[in-house]
């Protein structure tokens, strides 16, 4: 490691986050890791985010503030990568926070084993009325994968434990990331696509059993959210890449049902988002989205190839198989 080079660069895109960024940044600064930098990239916020960031940077020199015209989180992350000096990179969202005291252990694992990537657990916190009503926990078991055989065994385990796609539960060796960047033309699943590209060429990975990140699901997040018309295409692209990754590692045949389960999960999420109120889609547009999605090759393969499911999911699949936007929309409003 170069002299004065931080061991960790935390990259945080910020957009209209004035209410939450102080908690997010302080949750990192108070971890007890002296050799770190936080690179907060303001993505053209219309609120007081830059003022909050500037104040926090005056209080702690480990925080660096960059600004750009609004171009999306992928462009902000790419700028952060370009500016990062740390041996390892960590991507964090500005409306989440880290569990106290978790980073030192993760950094120690990285420095001990020098993996290309390190993954750790997280909890999804559901907030209503300003209070967390319940949480779901996702974690793996402590392990080190350094051979092709070990990496092949690890890949399905990451998917099963829902650890494979997100950015904020991983540390990335900067030299390994190299010239890899986020695709700024993709506005959904860009995190998974970035990870899958790295998985294709990784030589080692460490998994920590720590649960260190709080992924906040706020009621306000789902009240008014525009539905991008390209969402089914981006979803198809991500699922095709996932299947290709399993094929590359030689674990497709024994794990295709696991991938098909992921296909089903994403179909359900996409339909719910498409028919949500105040999402910018008229009913005719919702119907068009549903028809387009169900006609995509990986979606068709997943629905057809999936083995028999528990009653509710089997009922959902039966309704989806009708390919009737009216029936699907009605059914999803009921459930």
Describe this structure in words.
This protein has 335 residues and is an alpha/beta fold. It has 2 domains: 8-222, Spore Coat Polysaccharide Biosynthesis Protein SpsA, Chain A (Alpha-Beta Complex); 231-334, no CATH class. The chain contains 13 helices and 10 strands. Strands 1, 2, 3, 4, 5, 6, 7, 8, 9 and 10 form a 10-stranded mixed β-sheet that branches. The model has no long low-confidence stretch (mean pLDDT 95).
Estimate the global geometry from the Cα principal axes. globular
Number of domains: 2
Total helical segments? 13
CATH homologous superfamily assignment of the largest domain? Spore Coat Polysaccharide Biosynthesis Protein SpsA, Chain A
Task: Explain briefly what this protein structure is.
By secondary structure, this protein is an alpha/beta fold. It has helices at residues 21-29, 49-59, 73-83, 103-113, 148-160, 174-177, 190-199, 231-248, 252-274, 283-294, 297-305, 311-321, 325-334; strands spanning 8-14, 36-43, 63-68, 88-91, 97-98, 117-128, 131-138, 143-145, 170-173, 205-218.
Jot down its keywords.
10-stranded mixed beta sheet; globular; 335 residues; 45% helix; alpha/beta; Spore Coat Polysaccharide Biosynthesis Protein SpsA, Chain A
What is the fold's blueprint, element by element?
Blueprint: E1 8-14, H1 21-29, E2 36-43, H2 49-59, E3 63-68, H3 73-83, E4 88-91, E5 97-98, H4 103-113, E6 117-128, E7 131-138, E8 143-145, H5 148-160, E9 170-173, H6 174-177, H7 190-199, E10 205-218, H8 231-248, H9 252-274, H10 283-294, H11 297-305, H12 311-321, H13 325-334
Parallel strand pairs: 1-2, 1-4, 2-3, 6-10
Antiparallel strand pairs: 4-9, 5-10, 6-7, 6-9, 8-10
């Amino acid at each position: 490691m170069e002299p004065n080079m931080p061991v960790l660069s935390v990259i945080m895109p910020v957009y209209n986050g004035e209410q939450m960024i102080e908690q997010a940044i302080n949750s990192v600064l108070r971890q007890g890791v002296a050799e770190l930098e936080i690179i907060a990239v303001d993505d053209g916020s219309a609120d007081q985010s830059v003022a909050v960031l500037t104040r926090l940077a005056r209080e702690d020199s480990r925080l660096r503030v960059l600004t750009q015209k609004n171009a999306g989180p992928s462009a902000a992350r790419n700028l952060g990568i370009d500016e990062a000096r740390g041996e390892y990179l960590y991507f964090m969202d500005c409306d989440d926070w880290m569990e106290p005291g978790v980073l030192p252990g993760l950094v120690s694992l990285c420095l001990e084993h020098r993996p290309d990537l390190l993954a750790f657990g997280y909890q999804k916190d559901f907030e209503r009325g300003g209070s967390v009503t319940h949480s779901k926990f996702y974690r793996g078991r402590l392990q080190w994968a350094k051979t092709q055989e070990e990496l092949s065994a690890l890949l399905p385990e990451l998917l099963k434990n829902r650890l494979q796609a997100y950015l904020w539960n991983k540390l990335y060796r900067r030299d390994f990331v190299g010239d890899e960047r986020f695709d700024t033309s993709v506005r959904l699943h860009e995190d998974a696509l970035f990870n899958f590209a790295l998985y294709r060429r990784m030589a080692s990975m460490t998994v920590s059993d720590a649960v260190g990140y709080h992924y906040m699901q706020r009621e306000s997040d789902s009240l008014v959210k525009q539905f991008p018309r390209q969402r089914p295409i981006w979803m198809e692209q991500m699922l095709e890449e996932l299947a290709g990754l399993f094929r590359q590692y030689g674990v497709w045949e024994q794990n295709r049902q696991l991938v098909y389960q992921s296909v089903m999960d994403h179909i359900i999420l996409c339909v719910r988002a498409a028919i949500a109120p105040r999402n910018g889609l008229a009913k005719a547009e919702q119907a068009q989205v549903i028809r387009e999605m169900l006609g995509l090759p990986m979606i068709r393969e997943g629905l057809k190839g999936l083995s028999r499911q528990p009653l509710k999911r089997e009922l959902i699949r039966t309704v989806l198989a009708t390919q009737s936007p009216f029936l699907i929309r009605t059914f999803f409003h009921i459930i």
